[in-house]
C-alpha cells in the first residue's frame, strides 16, 4: 500500500500530466514559418508571357518595351482603370482621355474594362475583350479595388490566360502591387494612413511569395518593408521607385527605368565587390538594383551576367564599321570608334574626361554589344550601304526575345 506522501505525489503528477502533454504538443505543432526564416523559399514568375511592374510613372523607354512585347502595331490592349476613385471615373466615364493617351503611345486597338461588381466580373459578357487581348494595363489608384472586383472571378482566370498565351500584363502604382501575391498597402490603418500591411492582403499572385511596394524611395518607404517581413518572412520584398519598373519573364526580372529597385531577400549585394553576403538574423538591410540589373526570383539572388557569344569577324570587316568619324554629339560629349588588338572599341569623351575604351562585339550584321551588355550598338547605313553612324540602345529584340541584357543561366 502506498504511503500518503507517495500517493499524493503520484496524484499530483497525474493531475499535471494533461498540461505537460498540451505544452509539448503545442511546441511541436507550431508553424515553423512563424518561428524561423525559411532557408530556401522561392518566388515563381509566369511560365509564359511577361509582366511589367512599375513603381509609378513610366519613361518613354518603358512604354516602348511594353508596346513591343504587346505586339507593336498588332497589339490588342485592354486597359483596366478599376483602381481609380469615383471622381476619376466620373471625370472620364467613357475613358476617352485614357484612350487618347494610349493611342499617343502607339497603341491602335484599345478597349476598356471596368466594374465594381465582382458578380458582373464573373460573367462571360464582361470578360469578352480579354479573350483576344495580347496586353493588359492595370491603372494606378487603390489596389484593394482591383482585388475586391476581380479576385476569384472569370476576369482573374482570363488575365492569367493572357499570360499563358504569351501576352504581357503591365501596371504601375496600384497596378504594380496587385501583381504580387501579398497586397502591400491594401487598406488604411487606425490613423488613416496606408500602412504596409492592410486588408485585403491577397494580390493576383502573378509572381508567387512576393510583395511589390511602389513610389518607394520617392515617398521614403524603404524601411516599411521590414515590418511586413517580420510577420511574413517567406515573402520576397521588392520596392520599386517612380519612373522605374521590372520586366518579369519566367523566373527572372530586369530593372528598367531611371531610378532604383530595392531588394529585401535577407542578403546584401554590393556592385562594388560583386559579392552576395547573407545577413545575420534580424539585420535590416536591403540593396538597390539599377537599370539593366537582373534578379533571379527562383534562387532569390542578383543574376550575375553571362556574355553572349560574339561572332568572329576579320580586322577588315571591323574597319568597315570604324569609318573616319570622330564626331561631336554636343559641346561636352564626343564619341569615337577605333580598332585595338583586332577588337572594335567605343570611347566617349566628356569635357576633359577621357572614358575607358569599351570593347563591343559583333552579334549579327550591324548589331554589336559592349562587354557588360549595357548597350547595343546599331550601325546605320545610307541607301548605298555605306555606314554613316550608329545608335546606342539599351535593348534589342532578337528572335522575338527582348535582349535588354545578356542571356543568363541559373
Automatic annotation (TrEMBL):
GO terms for biological process: proteolysis. It comes from the Bacteria. Keywords: Hydrolase, Protease, Serine protease. GO terms for molecular function: serine-type peptidase activity. It holds the Pfam family Peptidase_S51. The keyword Lyase does not apply. CDD domains: GAT1_cyanophycinase. PROSITE patterns: PROKAR_LIPOPROTEIN. Belongs to the peptidase S51 family. This is Cyanophycinase. It comes from Algoriphagus aquimarinus.
Amino acid at each position: 500500500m502506498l504511503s500518503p506522501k507517495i500517493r499524493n505525489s503520484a496524484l499530483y503528477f497525474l493531475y499535471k500530466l494533461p498540461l505537460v502533454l498540451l505544452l509539448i504538443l503545442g511546441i511541436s505543432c507550431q508553424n515553423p514559418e512563424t518561428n524561423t526564416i525559411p532557408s530556401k523559399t522561392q518566388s515563381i514568375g509566369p511560365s509564359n508571357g511577361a509582366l511589367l511592374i512599375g513603381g509609378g510613372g513610366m519613361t518613354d523607354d518603358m512604354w516602348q518595351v511594353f508596346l513591343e512585347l504587346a505586339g507593336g502595331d498588332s497589339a490588342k490592349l485592354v486597359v483596366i482603370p478599376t483602381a481609380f476613385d469615383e471622381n476619376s471615373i466620373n471625370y472620364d466615364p467613357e475613358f476617352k482621355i485614357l484612350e487618347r493617351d494610349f493611342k499617343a503611345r502607339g497603341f491602335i486597338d484599345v478597349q476598356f474594362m471596368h466594374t465594381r461588381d465582382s458578380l458582373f466580373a464573373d460573367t462571360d459578357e464582361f470578360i469578352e475583350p480579354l479573350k483576344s487581348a495580347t496586353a493588359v494595363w492595370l491603372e494606378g489608384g487603390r489596389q484593394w479595388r482591383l482585388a475586391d472586383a476581380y479576385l476569384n472571378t472569370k476576369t482573374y482566370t482570363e488575365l492569367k490566360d493572357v499570360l499563358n498565351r504569351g501576352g504581357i500584363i503591365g501596371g504601375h502604382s496600384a497596378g504594380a502591387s496587385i501583381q504580387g501575391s501579398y497586397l502591400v498597402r491594401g487598406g488604411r490603418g487606425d490613423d488613416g494612413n496606408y500602412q504596409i500591411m492592410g486588408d485585403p492582403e491577397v494580390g493576383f499572385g502573378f509572381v508567387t511569395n512576393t510583395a511589390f511596394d511602389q513610389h518607394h524611395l520617392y515617398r521614403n518607404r524603404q524601411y516599411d518593408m521590414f515590418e511586413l517581413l517580420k510577420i511574413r518572412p517567406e515573402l520576397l520584398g521588392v520596392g520599386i521607385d517612380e519612373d522605374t519598373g521590372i520586366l518579369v519573364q519566367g523566373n527572372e526580372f530586369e530593372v528598367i527605368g531611371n531610378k532604383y529597385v530595392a531588394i529585401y531577400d535577407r542578403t546584401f549585394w554590393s556592385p562594388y565587390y560583386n559579392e552576395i553576403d547573407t545577413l545575420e538574423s534580424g539585420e535590416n538591410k536591403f540593396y538597390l538594383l539599377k537599370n539593366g540589373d537582373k534578379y533571379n526570383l527562383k534562387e532569390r539572388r542578383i543574376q550575375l551576367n553571362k556574355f553572349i557569344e560574339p561572332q568572329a569577324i576579320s580586322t577588315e570587316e571591323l574597319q568597315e564599321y570604324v569609318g573616319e568619324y570622330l564626331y561631336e554629339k554636343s559641346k561636352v560629349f564626343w564619341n569615337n570608334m577605333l580598332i585595338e588588338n583586332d577588337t572594335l572599341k567605343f570611347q566617349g569623351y566628356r569635357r576633359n574626361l577621357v572614358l575607358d575604351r569599351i570593347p563591343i562585339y559583333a552579334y549579327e550584321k550591324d548589331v554589336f554589344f559592349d562587354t557588360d551588355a549595357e548597350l547595343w550598338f546599331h550601325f546605320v547605313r545610307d541607301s548605298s550601304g555605306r555606314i554613316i553612324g550608329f545608335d546606342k540602345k539599351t535593348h534589342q529584340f532578337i528572335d522575338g526575345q527582348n535582349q535588354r541584357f545578356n542571356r543568363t543561366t541559373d
